[in-house]
Write a sequence for this structure.
């Protein structure tokens, strides 16, 4: 089972940007879809973005046009670029291979 480690979370002001990184312990070439989820305090974990093996991307409506997900096969890395951040983007961001592996998350806090 692949191990996933997220990084890049920080405290930023509203309107700012962050780049989150998910590093896999082994090749992600054969993984059909990699995803980012987030969980705000007191709320359930929710889907944010995904990218397939053939780079088909999906986003939750609230981040469309602001977030972009990338897949670096050679580096076994999934990146989430987040622009125009809003306070409601605050939460712990998790990476998953959609096959049972999850990282421990990275904290994103957007101040108003």
């Amino acid at each position: 089972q692949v191990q996933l480690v997220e990084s890049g979370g920080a405290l930023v002001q509203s309107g700012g940007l962050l780049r989150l990184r998910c590093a896999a312990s082994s090749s992600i070439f054969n993984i059909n879809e990699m995803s980012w989820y987030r969980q705000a305090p007191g709320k359930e974990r929710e889907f944010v973005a995904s990218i397939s093996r053939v780079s088909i991307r999906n986003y939750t409506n609230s981040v469309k046009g602001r977030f972009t997900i990338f897949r670096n096969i050679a580096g076994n890395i999934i990146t989430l670029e987040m622009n125009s951040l809003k306070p409601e983007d605050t939460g712990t961001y998790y990476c998953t291979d959609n096959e049972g592996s999850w990282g421990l998350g990275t904290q994103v806090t957007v101040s108003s």
